[in-house]
């Protein structure tokens, strides 16, 4: 084109159309680049008067004890997370606020409880999680040792096994440890170091009596092992939040 510089650079990114993946986290380099610069400084990234008390009351993300290897534990309860009303941007700020204000120096781990998670209500989407993780400072990512994935279910295993390597960095992908029953969690974490909600214990009891449900062999009429469908839920709420932002600006 006339007026263009011969030294102009461009790149092409091709995504398969049938994956239902929101490509904006990959394409918005300018916006994410600006956020990346401020992500490394708590004072710059967070507003001093920002109130997260409403999210704290939900108890979906909080610091607890330590595992058997001395790693501090961040417990995440998927069922407690209201994905339909919390924006991706606010979730990112909240996660960073918790890490900056509560996590002491040293290694840490995550215990994520997927028990009875519903794809319509509790999943922010895989690309949003990837976006949050990738924008963390490298030292924090290095300090994360293990992600204990409690009650993963068949669908979540399949999604992560088939698409996880593409949408999660290698550093995170290889840190995921599946924990199909609470009894296996106690091999790495002493009882009392992490609080287990009653519904997680009840879910565990149900799975003990229906072990084949984990493998999709036994029917799952109560949808205990629901996992977001790869057809539309990788960042389904992200688009909905974006449209709301546009409406506010108009």
From TrEMBL:
InterPro entries: CRAL-TRIO_dom, CRAL-TRIO_dom_sf
Pfam families listed in its UniProt record: CRAL_TRIO_2
UniProt protein name: CRAL-TRIO domain-containing protein
Residue ranges of every copy of the CRAL-TRIO domain listed in the record: 54-205
Signal peptide: none
SUPFAM superfamilies: CRAL/TRIO domain
Transmembrane segments: none
